[in-house]
Specification:
The complex is a heterodimer of chains A (872) and B (497). Chain A is an alpha/beta fold and 872 residues long. Chain A has 29 helices and 37 strands. In chain A, α3 packs parallel to α4 and α10 crosses α12. The chains are: A alpha/beta (872), B alpha/beta (497). At the A-B interface, β23, α17, α22, α23 and α26 of A face β3, β4, α2, β5 and α9 of B.
């Protein structure tokens, strides 16, 4: 009876086997997507311009294998359209399937030679092919059929004759057992139970599961009913049995929960060993199996049969919640997740060991989690640890209950740990639970021992995360690309000048100015900013006075312990104040310490720590005066220009006056122009002087915070700017000598009089020498439909811009040309940097590994090296 | 900026003939970057003054250079419109080209005559107040300079580095005066030839003609030009460093290489006093001369490299890493050893790497030789699998350029992860610093040094690293040892235990 449907695993490597002319290509085209088919003829054509050039076969197959490998790596079903009749041609393909943990499948197209020959005869390019070729292919095929299973093919379809080949009308793609992506939880994931039934009951109780006895009516009934809290589901990470006092009860409970859908379960190595025993295999009854077997003796054969069936049906691992969560007894590397092979199963059960043995006679485990970089959270057990600790988005929750530790559950997606202590030590561990901490203490590395595993790992980042072209997924923009040459520049700056990356939670984005104003004597004016936002549907904006100082990000802990706990930095003080390029703002250590302590005290006075239930904070601020950080720059560049002008121009005026006295034509006009330039230089000098004052002590520094960026577990991007302004104004009251509240006003753009008075405010501000103001949409993250708007626009005053555009910028003939500027690139950059900044801080607050935070921070720094007119 | 030339030669108005410019008219001409005006504020038979006024267009200067290509923000606000620079030289040759060539149609004998001349330049920018004198006095001028405060509202900032320059000469051909100004004014200027193209700069040096070889400061003068010619400021990096007080790393003079190792040596002292940010590596930048050593044949840096290279050969390694390879001096030494099969040089500075590639002539190497060496950008603070599998690694004067609290990361990257069989780490010996005359106590030898360790401090670090990572270590002196303070540099030699 010919099959009309072939059932295959959804992720498999399918080899079509058949002689030339057997109809493989036609078959493949009929049943698979064109992109799923990798054909040797096509490869031959690609490398030789001739699909029949047999001399090109070596290169062609190299290409074919390369293509197959790339597809399998990316988890795509792949069909190899080649004769595949010889074992040596199949061997590398089967090896690829193994390497990528994909199931190899063989479909044999076994048609009579005459048919094949007839078909080839109709194809001009194959006419030269003698009948001996087909005969040889068939001979090879015959020989192959016997061996396919031994070669590793799990699914073999032998289609005999043209009818059977043509009868196949469809391919049924079977989902892999481990694919449970549609199950989104919430879950309660339970670590290695090892027969600790009482603790399991207590834990389930704490998690809100109701466990009741159920009447037993049938031998199949287990006598327990567990009702989970609404919507939740438990997941057992395996190793239900051995060592503990009540393995059968644990099995009974777990089996009942799995049967009723209250739980999922993956197998552990102990469970599988028990299964082998139940299957009649000879196993050594050590490592606690003996106890289990003894406990099982009093159980019925029916129960043992059910246990056997249950264990036999367990799937090595599960991929859950759209791929965001993976559970496996011993964990699973990214390449193995959602794949099926013996290697995957072995890894999920046993993990991997380095082949070495430790001082306790136990195999040293290869710490795959240290190198884990996958997107999915991996929850696992297998190796008892004193505390469940996050590392690279993985967590081992086997806290050694049976060894007298605790039984731990992880609530997903809450990431909360729930644990119950063991009633007693049921089994003495071969290796003490806390042996690693003990080792460290013995080595005198107590400081490092105090840091979490993640913090220790984060001490050194990997260069792969920052170099080369980067594509960073962000919440606000779908992907932000950082070009390689920009990463190159950022690597140098980050390595040579920046603080320890653990301090760098956030770098502020660049900010675009308004469109250029057409008003006389002005380059920038608030009208353009208001018009921009109004046009994009923003109803309210916040105008904040712009302080001319240095932009700083402040990361501050309540004490050093907070910094150690949250940032994993020891001995680096209670905080840092860093610039837009990640450099320490302070070069004077004492001033830094005093500044941070005073700021910390101000926050304490303001009751900040309690109010926000946090022991650290990240602030975006301006630190004044400008000259505090930029003193050398002011002297060498800005003051120098004024000095040069002041020295040269009066002498020019003098000789021009003499020339004018001689009535030389043109001298008068040149004299007038020179006088204007002398005046412009004086105005320019006044402009930079406003932002300079000597810093002799702490009292001369002023900090003007304008964004409360983050505290423990929270960012404040969801709060509007008025909230930020008010929150920080209250804070400033705690120490007005140090902190400066930023004057601001909320402007409804629909109200012309409010708009007018905001413009007047800016005019007065800038006339008095102020730098200008920043116009921000009321919402911190401004969205129009779904697209991101400029988070802020700056609008700088006429006097201030002398420092930016030079002393002569307002002279006739200059301003007209300076108006021709383009803010587009700058705005694009501002958006990308904003998205990266928000993303990085959100990742930090969510407890992600440093490399994920650093990638964003590094990205902002790299984007800052893009070529944009720096005067904008 | 303004240049005036006054003569009391009789009749003084002959100056008009010499300059080929009519004293009765104000003439304007277009020059690179703006306009030049030539006029005579006074023109009598007794005394005649010609003025060359440069009116540079500050907006035009920076326009058409793409989106800020090559400019940090502060460069848009600059002193070019006020200061005598290479622009003035260009204007001189355009306005007074005939005179500079010594031809005068109307008074053919005049160019050969020595005239009493007074010159004023308002203003020049100079690296120090004595420099105008050092450049012009050897040529027979009487030199006066005048300066003023950098900012009268900030007296503690001191004087500016702008000077009104007054030169007098009792008798010199006008042609010579013009040529001197043409060559020397850009030399005085603080290297800011941003806007002049390379050809123009080459022409400038060319005009030195006959007098430059005798000039006592010829080394300084030529180096100033060469430095400009060799400069390839990395615009991308410049933007990032914007607003920092740090100068971009300066390129090295291209003539300094193994072919003529002492070009820099002969002028070392003069460079030091003048140009603290100058081009030479390490000690030279701080103007250090060793009081104990008379005339070192090799610079400290070169000595160190030779010693490290020598130690490396002794091990007969197949694969060698140079971490922080800079411009490739050690790589060059290593390449000469045919038994080393592969050398990987890493530096964090892309600019240094491209210069290393040039200096090692990587493009011209045979394929076999080319395959022996690879340059990569990388950082010692990031784990990097490209550093694994080497027999030896050198870190020559690298660690002191990292903040001390980042050394833990370097330690992890090099000793825990890359784990070369042997590691050579050199660093200055702070004990020795007291012998440097120009170094005050507590100062470092280089602006970018974050720390300098005494012998005890270095030994403690090296021992700790070795213990933590299973290496054996010995620390050796580098350079001639002086009783009580040791050698200028020190090296830790690590070997896997």
């Amino acid at each position: 009876m010919p099959q009309d449907t072939l059932k295959l695993p959804e992720l498999s490597l399918i080899l079509l086997l058949g002689s030339s002319g057997a109809g493989k290509s036609t078959f493949a085209r009929r049943l698979f997507k064109p992109t799923e088919i990798v054909s040797s003829d096509v490869c031959r054509g690609l490398v030789a311009d001739d699909e029949n050039d047999q001399s090109a076969s070596g290169d062609a197959f190299e290409l074919l294998h390369y293509l197959v490998a790339k597809r399998l790596k990316r988890g795509l079903l792949t069909v190899v359209d080649a004769t595949n009749v010889q074992a040596e041609s199949r061997k590398p393909l089967v090896a690829l399937a193994r390497q990528y943990h994909v199931l190899p499948v063989a479909i044999v197209l076994d048609v009579p030679d005459a048919v094949a020959h007839e078909r080839n005869a109709h194809r001009p390019e194959r006419r030269g092919m003698g009948p001996h070729v087909i005969a040889r292919h068939r001979q090879d095929l015959r020989r192959s059929l016997r061996n396919l299973r031994d070669e590793g093919f799990r699914h073999i379809f032998h289609l005999r004759g043209v009818e059977e080949v043509d009868a196949v009308q469809g391919i049924l793609r079977d989902r892999l057992y481990n694919n449970r992506k549609e199950e989104t939880g919430p879950f309660d994931i339970i670590g290695d139970v090892h027969g600790c039934y009482d603790e399991l009951l207590a834990l389930l109780g704490d998690l809100g599961y109701q466990v009741e006895a159920e009447p037993v009516a049938d031998v199949r009934d287990l006598g327990i009913r567990v009702t989970p809290p609404a919507g939740r589901r438990a997941i057992f990470l395996g190793d239900l049995v051995d060592r503990g006092p009540a393995s059968p009860q644990v099995l009974r409970l777990a089996m009942s929960m799995v049967r009723s859908g209250a739980a999922l379960c993956v197998p552990g190595n102990h469970d599988i060993k028990l299964l082998r025993h139940l299957n009649g295999k000879k196993v050594t009854a050590n490592h606690g199996l003996a106890e289990t077997l003894a406990q099982l003796e009093s159980e019925s054969d029916s129960f043992k049969g059910q246990v056997r069936q249950f264990l036999d049906g367990l799937v090595s691992h599960y991929v859950l919640d759209g791929g965001k969560l993976v559970v496996a007894h011993a964990g699973l590397t990214e390449e193995m997740q959602g794949r099926g092979s013996g290697a995957v199963r072995a890894f999920a059960l046993f993990g991997e060991s380095t082949g070495e043995i430790d001082e306790f006679g136990l195999p040293i485990r290869y710490e795959w989690a240290r190198e884990y970089r996958g997107r999915a959270m991996v929850v696992f057990g297998h190796t008892p640890v004193p505390d469940a600790e996050w590392l690279n988005n993985t967590i081992d929750i086997d806290t050694g209950c049976v060894f007298g530790g605790r039984l731990t559950a992880l609530r997903y997606p809450e990431r909360e740990l729930v644990a119950v202590p063991a009633a007693r030590v049921y089994c003495e561990p071969a290796r003490p639970l806390n042996y690693r901490a003990a080792q460290l203490a013995a080595a005198g590395a107590a400081a490092e021992g105090d840091l979490s595993a993640q913090h220790q790992q984060d001490d050194v980042l990997d260069i792969r995360d920052v170099t080369g072209k980067q594509f960073i997924e962000t919440r606000l923009l779908r992907g932000v690309t950082v070009r390689e040459e920009n990463a190159v520049a950022a690597l140098e700056v980050m390595s040579r000048f920046a603080l320890h990356p653990k301090w760098l939670l956030y770098l502020p984005p660049t900010m675009s100015p308004t469109e250029t104003s057409e008003l006389p004597d002005l380059l920038e004016h608030p009208a353009e900013a208001f018009a921009y936002y109004q046009k994009l549907g923003v109803e309210r904006v916040v105008c904040e006075e712009k302080h001319m100082g240095s932009r700083v990000v402040v990361v501050l802990g309540k004490d050093e312990a907070a910094i150690q706990r949250r940032l994993g930095l020891t001995g680096e003080g209670i905080g840092k104040c860093y610039t837009r390029t990640g450099r320490n703002f302070f070069t004077d250590k004492n001033l830094e310490t005093a500044f941070l302590a005073r700021l910390r005290d101000a926050l304490t006075t303001a009751g900040f720590w309690d109010k926000f239930s946090t022991d650290w904070v990240c602030l975006d601020a301006e630190l004044l005066p400008w000259s505090a950080k930029a003193q050398e720059l002011v002297k060498n560049q800005y003051a120098a220009v004024a000095a040069a002008a002041t020295a040269a121009l009066p002498q020019v005026e003098a000789v021009l006056a003499e020339a004018a006295a001689r009535d030389l034509e043109g001298a008068e006009a040149l004299l007038a122009r020179t006088t204007a330039r002398r005046q412009a230089a004086a105005d320019y000098a006044d402009a930079y002087r406003r932002y300079c004052w000597p810093v002799h002590s702490l009292d001369d520094l002023k900090l003007a915070p304008f964004h409360l960026l983050a505290t423990e577990g929270k960012t404040y991007f969801d709060r509007d700017h008025a909230w930020h302004m008010e929150t920080l104004r209250t804070l400033a009251l705690a120490d007005p000598g140090l902190l400066r509240a930023t004057p601001y006003r909320v402007v409804p753009l629909g109200d012309p009089s409010e708009v007018e008075s905001a413009i007047q405010w800016w005019t007065d501000l800038t006339a008095a020498g102020g730098e200008g103001m920043v116009v921000k949409p009321y919402d911190f993250i401004p969205l129009n439909a779904r697209s991101l708007l400029q988070p802020a626009l700056k609008c700088r005053g006429r006097e201030y811009l002398r420092i930016i555009y030079g002393p002569d910028y307002l002279l006739p003939g200059n301003l007209e040309r300076l108006r021709q500027r383009n803010v587009k690139t700058k705005r694009n950059l501002a958006l990308r940097e904003f998205a990266l900044g928000v993303e990085g801080l959100e990742r930090f607050v969510a407890g992600q590994p440093l490399r994920r935070v650093h990638q964003c921070v590094f990205g902002v720094l790299a984007l800052e090296s893009e070529a944009v007119d720096p005067r904008l | 900026m303004l240049l005036t030339i006054t003569t009391t030669y009789q009749p003084a108005t002959d100056l008009g003939y010499l300059l080929h410019k009519n004293p009765a008219r104000l003439q304007s001409l277009e020059i690179t970057g703006g306009q030049a005006h030539v006029f005579y504020p006074e023109a009598t038979a007794e005394r005649c003054t010609a003025a060359l006024l440069l009116d540079l267009d500050p907006v035009g200067l920076v326009r058409g250079r793409g989106n800020g290509e090559g400019f940090a923000l502060e460069q848009y606000v600059n002193d070019r419109p006020y200061v005598a620079s290479s622009f003035l030289s260009v204007a001189l040759s355009k306005a007074f080209g005939t005179a500079m060539n010594g031809t005068c149609k109307d008074r053919p004998a005049l160019p050969a005559e020595a005239l009493p001349l007074a010159i004023t330049v308002a203003v020049v920018s100079a690296p120090g107040p004595d420099w105008p004198r050092r450049l012009f006095e050897p040529l027979g001028y009487t030199v006066e300079t005048e300066t003023s405060s950098l900012d009268p509202t900030q007296p503690e900032w001191g004087n500016s580095s702008y000077y009104t320059l007054r030169l007098r000469h009792d008798g010199l051909r006008l042609q010579d005066v013009l040529t001197h100004l043409y060559v020397l004014l850009p030399v005085l200027d603080n290297d800011k030839h941003y806007y002049i193209d390379q050809q123009e700069a080459e022409k400038l040096l060319h005009r030195g003609g006959t007098w430059l070889p005798q000039h006592p400061e010829r080394g300084f003068i030529t180096r100033r030009y060469l430095r400009y010619l060799a400069a390839m400021v990395n615009p991308t990096l410049a933007r990032l460093l914007e607003g920092t007080e740090e100068e971009l790393p300066e390129p090295e003079v291209s003539t300094v290489d193994s072919a003529s190792p002492r070009v820099e040596g002969s002028e070392q002292e003069s460079t030091e006093t003048v140009s603290p940010q100058a081009v030479l590596p390490d000690e030279a930048t701080r103007g250090l001369t060793e009081s104990t050593v008379q005339q070192p044949r090799l610079s400290l840096h070169d000595q160190r490299l030779q010693q490290v290279a020598h130690e490396i050969y002794q091990l007969a390694p197949k694969r060698v890493l140079d971490l922080g390879c800079g411009e490739g001096k050690l790589l060059r030494l290593l390449l000469r050893q045919p038994k080393i099969e592969f050398i990987r040089g890493m530096d964090v500075s892309h600019q240094a790497l491209s210069r290393a590639a040039q200096r090692l002539h990587l493009d011209e190497l045979s394929p076999r030789q080319r395959a022996r060496i690879e340059l990569i950008q990388g950082s010692l603070l990031y784990r990097d699998e490209r550093l694994a599998g080497f027999d030896a690694a050198a870190l020559v004067e690298v660690i002191e350029h990292l903040d001390e609290n980042r050394l833990a990361a370097l330690e992890a990257v090099v000793f825990a992860q890359a784990r070369p069989a042997h590691v050579f780490v050199t660093t200055p010996n702070a004990d020795y610093n007291q012998l440097f005359e120009k170094l005050n106590a507590g100062e470092f030898r280089h602006d970018d040094h974050r720390f300098e360790w005494t012998r005890a401090e270095f030994a403690a670090w090296a021992t700790g690293v070795a213990e933590r990572h299973g290496y054996q270590v010995r620390v050796v002196a580098m350079g001639d040892e002086v009783e009580g303070v040791g050698a200028p540099s020190q090296m830790a030699v690590f070997g896997l235990a």
